[in-house]
Amino acid sequence: MSNYPLSAPKEQAAAVVVATVPGAKLVYDGQIEGRKVKLPVFLARRPPEPRDDALVAFYRSLLSPIHADLFHDGESVRASRLAR
Predict the structure, then answer these.
(1) DSSP for 13-58?
(2) Is the pLDDT reported for residue 77 higher than 70?
(3) pTM (2 decimals)?
(4) CA angle, corner 72, sides to 66 and 10, nearest 5?
């Protein structure tokens, strides 16, 4: 989501926004598990970190519906058209 640590509610709110807007869903390596150490691309080993099971469950529930046809074949509508 970001290069800066976020609190859990802010991280989850940002994840909901990213998961529901059109376009590719970019998730960095370790984001779903709650890893905090960001590794350089060329470094293949990482220090042990505890897994955040609550965050894993959150991302599973958030990302599982994105395979629905609505997100692939749905129609985008501007909010100003909905207000009429």
Answers:
(1) HHHHHHHHSSS-----TTTTTT--PPPPTT----------HHHHHH
(2) yes
(3) 0.58
(4) 35
Residue indicated by tokens 């709650």: 34
Closest CA to 15 of 68, 49, 61: 61
Q: Mind listing the pLDDT tens digit for each residue in 31-57? A: 888 888 777 777 777 778 888 888 889
pLDDT at 1: 44
- Taking the domains of the chain in order of start, what are their residue ranges? 8-82
DSSP, res 48:
-
Instruction: Specify the higher pLDDT residue, 10 or 47.
Output: 10
- The answer to whether 49 and 35 have CB atoms below 8 angstroms apart is yes
Amino acid letter for position 54:
A
The residues, any chain, with a CB within 8 Å of residue 34's CB and separated by 6 or more, are 49, 50, 51, 52, 55, 56
